[in-house]
């Protein structure tokens, strides 16, 4: 709620920021932040496995390590994009000592340093932007190969994929709820017990009600069958068996197959004819 508070709205107004809210339970709509959070959590889990309560001591070293590593999408480290120079981390200093590549600092005036820094930043950002667009195009191509767009209409009833009440990590389909409006291309506003909430199409599934009344009427219209009713095929079988010799076990089994009681005999013409 801190992102939609009155204080945050006032800050965005003063700074000229257009605030956009993402749909809940759909991390793909804010993929850059969620991907970083997942990476940070994975690193913290591995470093503080023996002392989980001391996880806060590893945040600053992890952030430093993350910022000095070149990213696959931009081919530049975040530190280099921000400050216009390569960071001298522990591994960089150790490599200089081993390879004896220590260079004497070049003497420049403040004016020359600022001009060179601005030029490097402009060139670096231009290259990084081009590489990022190419990476996004490749990722979109791979994702669209198996992706299918879901379409719903206003007034349609749908199920919503939401966390369970006992565990937020477990998801289940809840509903049915009615769609009241379309927001953008893939977002829909759902009426959930008098409150309207926005969900992405990937969290929705069409609801099909079971027609219980029709199935009940079908069962009531079906005529009752007697235990003595014999299918037409049974007459054919018995007639084909005329003249055959039956033993005692066969005679005992035939009344059971036809639905007759054990008191009725095979020779009874009312049963077999």
UniProtKB/TrEMBL annotation:
Domain of life: Eukaryota
UniProt record, GO biological process: DNA integration
Record organism: Plakobranchus ocellatus
Xref: InterPro entries: Integrase_cat-core, Retrovirus_Pol_polyprotein, RNaseH-like_sf, RNaseH_sf
Name used for this protein in its record: Zinc finger protein
Ranges for domain Integrase catalytic: 1-86
GO molecular function: nucleic acid binding
């Amino acid at each position: 709620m801190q992102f939609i508070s009155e204080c945050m709205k006032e800050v965005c107004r003063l700074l000229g920021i257009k605030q956009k809210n993402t749909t809940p339970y759909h991390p793909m709509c804010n993929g850059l932040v969620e991907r970083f959070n997942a990476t940070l959590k994975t690193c913290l889990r591995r470093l503080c496995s023996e002392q989980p309560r001391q996880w806060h001591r590893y945040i600053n070293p992890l952030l430093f390590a993350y910022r000095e590593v070149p990213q696959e999408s931009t081919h530049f480290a975040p530190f280099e994009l921000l400050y216009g120079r390569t960071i001298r981390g522990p591994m960089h200093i150790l490599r200089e000592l081993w390879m004896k590549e220590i260079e004497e600092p070049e003497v420049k005036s403040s004016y020359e340093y600022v001009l060179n820094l601005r030029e490097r930043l402009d060139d670096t950002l231009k290259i990084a932007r081009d590489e990022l667009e190419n990476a996004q195009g490749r990722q979109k191509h791979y994702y669209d190969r198996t992706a299918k767009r879901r379409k719903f209409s206003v007034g349609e009833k749908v199920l919503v994929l939401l966390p369970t009440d006992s565990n937020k990590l477990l998801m289940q389909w809840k509903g049915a709820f009615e769609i009241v409006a379309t927001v953008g291309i893939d977002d829909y506003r759902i009426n959930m017990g008098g409150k309207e909430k926005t969900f992405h199409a990937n969290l929705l599934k069409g609801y099909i009600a079971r027609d219980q009344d029709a199935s009940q009427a079908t069962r009531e219209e079906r005529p009752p069958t007697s235990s003595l009713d014999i299918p037409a095929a049974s007459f054919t079988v018995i007639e084909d068996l005329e003249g055959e010799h039956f033993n005692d076990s066969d005679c005992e089994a035939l009344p059971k197959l036809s639905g007759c009681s054990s008191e009725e005999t095979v020779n009874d013409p009312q049963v077999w004819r």
